[in-house]
Amino acid sequence: MTKLLLGAHMSIGGGVHRAIERSCSIECTAMQIFVKNNMQWFAKPLEQAEITAFLQHAQRKQLSAAFAHANYLINLAATNPQFHTNSLRALTEELIRADQLELPFLVLHPGAHLGAGEDAGLEKIIASIDAVHACLPKKTKARLALETTAGQGSCLGCTFEQLATIIENVQEPERLRVCLDTAHVFAAGYDISTEAGTKKMFAEFDRKVGLERLVALHLNDSKTARGSRVDRHEHIGKGKIGPAAFRFIMRDRRFRKIPKVLETPKGKELIEDVENMRTLRELAAE
Ligand code: ZN
Ligand code: FE
Ligand code: FE
Description:
binds zinc ion; alpha/beta; TIM Barrel; 38% helix; eight-stranded parallel β-barrel; binds fe (iii) ion
């Protein structure tokens, strides 16, 4: 039996290498991290010592997959010029940091149009991705992975059509990847409360976006109802989605090599992560 690629979003408090230790302390095989403080636009560049502490960490190899999630301040569709400029710079810097840490991709919420309208927002996101790609050093291997969103407020990326529009219209679509969040697709309206519904959602994802672009799964149950467009994560099996979607994902061979990470509420001791991973492993074994 191949090992499950399962883990959680981990804090980088005390340095990026500390996230490896936290993950390994609860036997994760996959990990998602921010590449700098999530509450700040910018940070001083990573020092070589920090990079080495991460790359050469004795436990690094216990994680089969490690990847990054972008800062929540970034909005590629920002209507305020200063916020937009900051977003482009922050995203470029985070992709470089992810690359320095040899993380294959950085998960990003596409953006919120803030009243400008869906089409204007999507156009701005497309142009912004092109701008970021154009100014990244050529050697950069880290990719952008657009995340499916709940569609809260004016957030874009809550339908597979919107993601497809972005991917089809950027200059270098081959550079984009996608991350699917179960709580977000559910809140956005996709019915994954049953196995049949989950199967159907993935078939639609495959038709419109392409499963070959899928590089990560965020496994979160939802505190909010289907179609609520409100993003509130709940422990696995304890929310409105229920176990069927998670059983399907954990057991479908197409997702075996796709890292699955939790973004569910937790305390410093990580007992909630341990519990949620246990639930997911049980579902995988059913
Ligand atoms: Zn996200
Ligand atoms: Fe997520
Ligand atoms: Fe979320």
